[in-house]
Amino acid sequence: MDIQLSPLHYVYLSFIVFIMALLIKRRDTTLICVVGIFALGLIATESLSGSVSGIFNSFIFAIKELIGTILIISIIVSMSRILIKTGVNEMMVAPLTRFLRSPALAFWGIGIIMMVTSWFFWPSPGVALIGAVLLPVAVRVGLPALGAAMAMNLFGHGIALSGDYIIQGAPKLTADAAGLPVSSVMEASIPLVIVMGVVTTAAAFWMMRRDMKNGTWRDGLVTGGSSGGNGEFNEIDDKIVLPHRVKQALALLIPFLFLIDVLAMFILNLQGGDATALVGGTAVFILIAVTMLAHRNQGLEQTTSYLIEGFQFGFKVFGPVIPIAAFFYLGDSAFTELFGKVLPEGSHGIVNDLGVALANNVPLNQAVGAVTLTVTGSITGLDGSGFSGISLAGSIAHLFATAIGSGAATLTALGQVAAIWVGGGTLIPWALIPAAAICGVSPFELARRNLKPVLLGLAVTTIVAMFLI
């Protein structure tokens, strides 16, 4: 079917190319996305006031789409703050420390604990929850601090965040941009996340052991870290004392409650927003209960204080995402909702139309599509925020899948995995600060150690994706 492309299509495509170029140059794309929304609005409405209003309305549309994700992350961070202050987090992981008896066990043990924790708490709070407790144990059995940082980083900001199967923030963003159900993107991402995780962590561990044996290992230690640094997540100096039995009970109850949530998701077939709401509601109850136990008479005020901290974190993380997502949502249903039916007759959205035109004019295949999505996802991650560019990855996946005729979910998941592994906190130094600060190592040295394993993982994952499309 031939689609008649209009100036709107070409303007949208031009801005996507421009945004990609800026990302390669490691420049911020927020301003360009706003200009893009204005330009599309001006062409669509032929009205200055309509195009200016369209900027604000597109932000509202994006916030409506993202608010569930912003809220769940904010609430999880709020809860993690009180668990850290009361030392409940230490009690939760204490039984696991007895298994960390060698450098190898410490590396894989810290990694797996970090991955599971990050599924429920998100990686940055997860680093604070377990890093300060497990790092001294790991160092004592011979694992370098940089090795511990690698394990926390690759398993948390890499494996856990790229799949994001419990909170489901990442798959919602990419699925929305690609016009797919969240469940289909999550299902398609499972083999890709497994391949990427296994290849990357195995390569990182092998390279670490090789360099330690050859005497070429550099620890990259800096002053600071969990034993006295001033990292973003080291706000744990003023500990709140709770009776030992109370902490023990909470340390058992909290994982049990989240385990019930996971079981409920399977039994009740909860996915997407419903699953997120269940985890979020549980986190709110845990926050209130622990805060009231810890602060007693000040519990009412302190609950609000922790929520404010969480919301500040959530909007700080997603602030740059909103204008970028607003632009890419215009590639689908948001455009008609905001600017009316101004696209050509028979149009199914700007991205759909571009995909059909691409299919009619450019010979695309599974290999080209997979490589392009990996490169696109990686480029969008260069700004150090794995989330800011995954809407672009979703839009391009939709476009390519339309051209190829299959593989929409796999291409979307591949772009998501690439974007988050690069920008979510494994390769970009300024995104590595939480893990580096907790372990007292240089974020630049940590990024250098992660580089080869992550690139190897991306290459193998891309090849696997070619056969899955």
Write a brief structural summary.
The chain has helices at 7-24, 30-45, 48-86, 88-93, 103-121, 123-140, 145-163, 169-178, 182-214, 244-267, 273-295, 299-318, 321-329, 333-339, 350-361, 366-380, 390-404, 408-423, 433-439, 443-468.
Give a written overview of the molecule.
By secondary structure, the chain is mainly alpha-helical. It has one domain (7-468). It has 20 helices and no strands. It is globular and about 70 Å long. The protein starts with 6 loop residues before the first helix and ends with a helix.
Secondary-structure blueprint of this entry?
Elements (H helix, E strand, L loop, with lengths): L6 H18 L5 H16 L2 H39 L1 H6 L9 H19 L1 H18 L4 H19 L5 H10 L3 H33 L29 H24 L5 H23 L3 H20 L2 H9 L3 H7 L10 H12 L4 H15 L9 H15 L3 H16 L9 H7 L3 H26 L1
Helix pairs in contact: 1-2, 1-15, 2-3, 2-13, 3-6, 3-8, 3-11, 3-12, 3-13, 5-6, 5-7, 6-7, 6-19, 7-9, 7-18, 7-19, 7-20, 8-9, 8-17, 8-18, 9-18, 9-20, 10-11, 11-12, 15-17, 16-17, 16-18, 16-20, 17-18, 18-20
